[in-house]
Amino acid sequence: MGRSSCFCPRCHLSQWEVLFFLSRWISNYIDGNPDSSTEETKAQLPLKDAKIEVIPDP
């Protein structure tokens, strides 16, 4: 599982706002029905599933 730091120097976004933003972003790459998708669809939507977890940086 990958880990990334904040995407802006001094974020003024809440943990929930970051989670919401990233969850909406990653959903653009999830194939809701990968078993019956064409190769073209799989190329555009390469993920079967994804989960975003936001952990505050101490």
Walkthrough of the structure:
The chain is an all-alpha fold and 58 residues long. It has a domain of 30 residues. The chain contains two helices and no strands. The longest helix has 13 residues.
What keyword list fits this structure?
2 helices; 58 residues; single chain; 0% strand; mainly alpha
Characterize this entry briefly.
By secondary structure, the chain is mainly α. Helix content is 33%, strand content 0%. The chain has a domain at 15-44.
What is the topology?
Elements: H1 15-27, H2 39-44
Number of strands: 0
In terms of structural class, how would the helical and strand content be classed? mainly alpha
Radius of gyration in whole Å, from Cα? Answer: 14 Å
Low-confidence stretches: none
Helix count equals: 2
N→C terminal distance: 19 Å
Gross morphology is elongated
Percent of residues in beta strands: under 5%
Oligomeric status: single chain
Largest sheet: none
Instruction: Please trace the helix and strand order, writing H or E for each element.
Output: HH
Percent range for helical residues? Answer: 25-40%
Q: Could you tell me the mean pLDDT?
A: 85
